[in-house]
């Protein structure tokens, strides 16, 4: 397990003038204690390395409460202040596949290092690594708090990009001109609603984490960067809520169309029934088997009865048209 852990762990050591990316050959090389110039970003893929986590925490004399926190299988959104450390957890939405999935991310932050632990391989942070390596922007002049801000910003940007991409697909599939009261269309609407609920849940969790970060007071950790990311999450949540309202309107429109069609069918059937009820009544009278029905002896009685039926039908149709019932 130790070798697997080392293969999935990298370190980037950077300062204004230096940049170094390395791998480890042993756990003892993961050093947070020895004074160093600059900032260290340690990244680990995988949460199932409890023994390795324990050794690193004990050897570097970090707050041993971290051991208990890292042993927990499930984490809600947390921001815990430890001995000159921050322990931050968040459920992050994975957007690479066709179906949206969740993964746990953990950040252990001090003024001079950030240890990011991700449940699954792959992330959205390559642009940060490229900026560090190419000395672009001010990131190499800043400490670990600014690096955490960039990571959170990368997560939000990924949410926004994925949301917009899905929104474009949804807009073409669920265009107002294509609204049809069919099971297929309703299924597309419900699928999009579930996607939006996933986005909203992830964005709310991120916003809650940022709100907690803004209240943190640790020497050497500046929380001023996080107000901008909070605004981004609030805007994203507002966009999601607006689209959810649009989808609810489309569902209501589908029900209205179905109700209107049902009413049209019932109106047509009712009109036909009203026309044929008196005709059926007349046919029923003269279809009885009594011997003494005077009209049956009339030479032109059959044609007279047909004429009466036609007149009744025409009058009924005229009356319905006058009332604008059809």
Automatic annotation (TrEMBL):
Primary location class: membrane
Any coiled-coil regions, as ranges: none
Membrane topology according to the record: Multi-pass membrane protein
Localisation: Cell membrane
Keywords assigned by UniProt, alphabetized: Cell membrane, Ion transport, Magnesium, Membrane, Transmembrane, Transmembrane helix, Transport
Catalysed reaction equations from the record: Mg(2+)(in) = Mg(2+)(out)
GO molecular-function terms, A-Z: cobalt ion binding; cobalt ion transmembrane transporter activity; magnesium ion binding; magnesium ion transmembrane transporter activity
Any one annotated GO CC term: plasma membrane
Pfam families, alphabetized: CorA (PF01544)
Function of the protein: Mediates influx of magnesium ions. Alternates between open and closed states. Activated by low cytoplasmic Mg(2+) levels. Inactive when cytoplasmic Mg(2+) levels are high.
Family named by the database record: Belongs to the CorA metal ion transporter (MIT) (TC 1.A.35) family.
PANTHER family xref list: CORA FAMILY METAL ION TRANSPORTER (EUROFUNG)
UniProt-recorded name of the protein: Divalent cation transporter
Source organism: Polaribacter filamentus
């Amino acid at each position: 397990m130790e070798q697997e852990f080392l293969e999935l762990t990298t370190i980037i050591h950077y300062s204004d003038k230096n940049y170094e990316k390395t791998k480890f050959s042993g756990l003892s090389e993961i050093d947070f204690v020895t004074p160093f110039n600059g900032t260290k970003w340690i990244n680990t893929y995988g949460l199932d390395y409890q023994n390795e986590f324990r050794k690193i925490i004990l050897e570097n004399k970090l707050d041993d409460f971290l051991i208990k926190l890292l042993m927990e299988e499930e984490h809600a959104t947390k921001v815990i202040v430890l001995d000159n450390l921050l322990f931050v957890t968040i459920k992050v939405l994975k957007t690479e596949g066709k179906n949206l999935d969740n993964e746990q991310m953990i950040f252990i932050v001090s003024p001079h290092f950030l240890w990011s632990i991700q449940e699954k391989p792959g992330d959205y942070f390559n642009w940060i690594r490229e900026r560090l390596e190419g000395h672009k922007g001010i990131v190499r002049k800043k400490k670990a708090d600014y690096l955490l801000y960039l990571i959170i910003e990368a997560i939000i940007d990924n949410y926004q990009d994925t949301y917009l991409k899905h929104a474009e697909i949804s807009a073409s599939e669920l265009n107002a001109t294509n609204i049809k009261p069919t099971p297929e269309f309703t299924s597309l609407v419900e699928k999009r609603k579930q996607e939006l609920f996933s986005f909203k849940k992830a964005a709310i969790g991120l916003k809650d984490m940022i709100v907690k970060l803004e209240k943190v007071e640790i020497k050497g950790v500046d929380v001023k960067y996080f107000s901008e990311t909070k605004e981004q999450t609030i805007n994203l949540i507002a966009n999601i809520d607006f689209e959810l309202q649009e989808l609810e309107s489309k569902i209501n429109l589908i029900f209205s169309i179905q109700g209107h069609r049902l009413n049209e069918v019932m109106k047509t059937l009712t009109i036909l029934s009203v026309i044929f009820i008196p005709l059926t009544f007349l046919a029923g009278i003269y279809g009885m088997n009594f011997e003494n029905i005077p009209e049956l002896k009339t030479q032109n009685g059959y044609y007279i009865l047909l004429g009466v039926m036609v007149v009744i039908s025409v009058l009924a149709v005229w009356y319905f048209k006058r009332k604008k019932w059809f």
